[in-house]
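Retro notes - structure team

What went well: the batch runner handled both jobs without manual restarts.
What didn't: labels got mixed up in the shared folder, which is why I'm recording both outputs here explicitly, each with its sequence directly above its tokens.

Job 1
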Amino acid sequence: MLESLQLDWNVFAIVLGGALLTWMTRIGGPWLVARVRLGPAANAALEATPGAVLVALVTPAALSRPSDALAAACVCLIARRVPMVVAVAGGVATVVLLRRLL
């Protein structure tokens, strides 16, 4: 069995290259923003991006089942009063509970 565990240099190079590119984007973004003067519209877009990404990821799942749609609505209501981490935890608990009941 151990004979089949050998290092494939192509896979190693791809993983290493992906890690390097990921690191460069994480470092390059703040580096670039520190050197470029952004206007109010660009600042507003950058501040809204995390929420937009979250909505893009959650919406298809929320529309797939009635219990998930109800849980998403609960999270929206909870998030208006408590920090987002608490709202997400409440959403997870709501999904688990509603999937058990419905």
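Job 2
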Amino acid sequence: MSLRVVTSDDWPLWRDLRVAALTDAPHAFRARLADWESGGREQWRARLATPGAHHVVAVRDGRPVGMVRGVPGDGPRSELRSLWVDSEARGAGVGDRLVASVTAWALRSGARTLRLAVVPGNEAALALYLRHGFVAVGAPGEPLADGVTRERVLDKALR
């Protein structure tokens, strides 16, 4: 398995993976497929052109099997977002490699903390993040579609 950093020119690949993620695991993301399904080229290119961001695709046997984003956050904090691994590749260390890639990027970027949010009930993702040193913080996450449930926020100290 290899990791590939992608740019705005790779928007069709990113689009296809993100649509696959939102189709495969809608329960795992705050975003909904309908939010992105009709997105055109410019919407997808803009996503990948976020200044200072790090977009990575995992490739196994020539096929993309996972994705993750690292984005600059407030102050000395970066954020890990949109992690997804294809169901056929789960349990093979793909998620570990994607988390490690964003962690290394955040360190290179000078971040002191790496933050993420996980949807309640996504126990597999939570276990992955806890294994990588993330801990729950008291800050409430963004509300989900029901307007009541909130994401669970986790941080990892980097320095």
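One thing worth noting from job 2: The radius of gyration is 15 Å.
We'll revisit the folder naming next retro.
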